[in-house]
Amino acid sequence: MKRTANHALVTVALLVGVRAFVIPHAAHAALTPAQKCTVAKQKAAGKKAAGKITCHTKVKLAAAADPACLQKAEDKFDKAFVKAEKPGACQVIGDAASVEGQVDTFVSALVQALNPGQALQARATTTPAQKCAIAKAKAASKKATAKLTCQIKNLSLPSAQLLNLCFSTAEDKFDTAFTNAEKPGACAATGDAAAIESLVDVFVSGIVAGPPTPTPTFGPTPTPKPCTSGFVDNGNGTITDCSTKLMWEKKDGSGGARDVSNTYQWAGTCTISGTLCQEDAQAEALCNAQTGGAVGCAQCGPGQGVCDLDTSIWSWLAFDVEGIADHNDWRIPTLAELQTILASPCPGGGLPCVPLEFRSPCTPGCSAIGATPCSCTVPGLYWSATTNLAGNPSFAWVVAFGSGGAGTDNKTLGDYVRAVRGGS
Q1: What is the C-alpha to C-alpha distance for residues 194 and 284, in angstroms, rounded to an integer?
Q2: What is the pLDDT of residue 28?
Q3: When you count CB atoms within 10 A of the terminal residue's CB, does the N or C end of the chain come out lower?
Q4: Report field, pTM of the whole predicted structure over 0.70
Q5: H runs (alpha helix) in 24-159
Q6: What are φ and ψ of residue 238, in 5° steps?
């Protein structure tokens, strides 16, 4: 996300000059790295469940499945989880035990529900009741895998209608398999489709939901400070403008998602058509909602290729900003909002043109919250959500916190960004 080469700035209004920054490009699929991690973990859970169910059907649903078979499923799951977490982009790390527990609970409940009684006896041949139970177990396994696949597909092409259709297909196949299993009339139990379906659905829902997101802890809740004029540091990683009532995200030097040196594109370009684009549905939705569908908000369409984009300000907003100070209504500021935190006059001496609360103290490794919090601003260009409709809609407005000016920049270039919420 750091700039590494030069690109020119299109000058409008007060902003003049050439910037020595560029954001690296890398073509990739619609899914973000965090979503790819989620997909890999969901696939691993589905494969482990299917593998363990197979171990039990091999011994006719006996409680004592082959330990070597079960261990093989465990080993594959562990390797898949390690591989998924290796890039470091997962939203949650170290949840393998939680997911394994869900898989094992599901498999154990399924085997117990379908065990036909004779399964524990040593038999050379499989009884009709066992054949029925095995068929039902396989149907449940296939339904779980199919429903997880539906959820995975829905990440890249979210649509309630398509998701419901995918679910319906999985359920129809399950119903057909259950009917065929019970047709010979030798099942130890009949009419248990709803109960087995419930086990599957609870398992799939749990895997998709994932572990509960831990509530951020910022230490003792700061004593509210009076806000009558100027800017107030709230002590929770935010700054409030007492006149506009806008709450601003604080930047720091932690090296994380809120690091002051991170830069992002407003939009990328489709590799075939060159059309401006967003990398995923969440970024598209946020961009559309805030700009009314500006140029660069849509994903690449059929025949346009994939979106050549590192990380857009909209993806950053979706994945790295939500939950700051326990608020979920953060957004990209408009040009007018961004200009309200310009200092007048600028302090000079190479310092950013912002009030003291946005630039002191700032040291490498410092954090926006904690015992010794910092507040950072780079004297560079910061994106607004305001697109340049009157001129070239492929450009959006920026504020230069080095000079105090405003201008526009090509949406595909890399600039800084700061989130905001609230207002008068």
Answers
A1: 38
A2: 33
A3: C
A4: no
A5: 33-58, 67-85, 96-114, 128-156
A6: -135, 160
